[in-house]
Specification:
There is one protein chain. This protein has helices at residues 14-17, 32-39, 87-97, 128-149, and strands spanning 5-10, 18-28, 43-44, 49-52, 57-60, 63-64, 81-84, 102-112, 115-125. By secondary structure, it is an alpha+beta fold. A hairpin with a 4-residue loop joins strand 4 (49-52) and strand 5. It is globular and about 55 Å long.
Length: 150
């Protein structure tokens, strides 16, 4: 990991709920009180998702807690936030989302050289049996580790 890199929030359920394919790094268009709140680690990606139209991408339903010192100039905690991506990347995501069962999910938010970045991934939802298989595999690996350390 580079020196100027600090993970602020992760979407832990993304890897469990979805098969993650191609990943992208995007900037976030934020207000002043939002970046201060994010630097303090006050962001949640739990219910969030990415909406892509033909020429813009948006982070929807991400909760950025209000910054206490901002008082009346504070932001709306769940407002849509524009993602800063190249046109080619947006077009690629737009083409992927038009397929059935494919969506775009935020994976993590981090600070890179003082700027807030978000890692997003093109994803396809897992079925129940896929989730059970992942749990069984994780349990088996844990058992093998226990046996190896004994």
């Amino acid at each position: 990991m580079p020196e100027n890199f600090k993970v602020v929030a992760t979407n832990r359920k993304a890897g469990f709920e979805y098969f993650l394919f191609e990943r992208f790094e995007a900037g976030l268009a934020l207000k002043g009180s939002e970046i201060k709140s994010i630097r303090a680690g006050q962001i949640s990606l739990a219910e969030s998702y990415i909406r892509v139209d033909e020429n813009q991408a948006w982070l929807i339903e991400a909760h950025v807690a209000p910054y206490i010192q901002a008082n009346r100039f504070n932001h709306d905690p769940k407002r849509p936030r524009r993602l800063l991506l190249h046109r080619k990347e947006i077009r690629e995501m737009w083409d992927a989302v038009r397929q059935k069962g494919v969506t775009i999910v935020p994976v993590r938010v981090y600070l890179k050289n003082g700027r807030a970045k978000i890692e997003i991934a093109i994803a396809k939802g897992k079925k129940l049996h896929d989730k059970r298989e992942a749990i069984a595999r994780r349990d088996a690996e844990r058992e093998m580790d226990r046996e190896a350390s004994s």
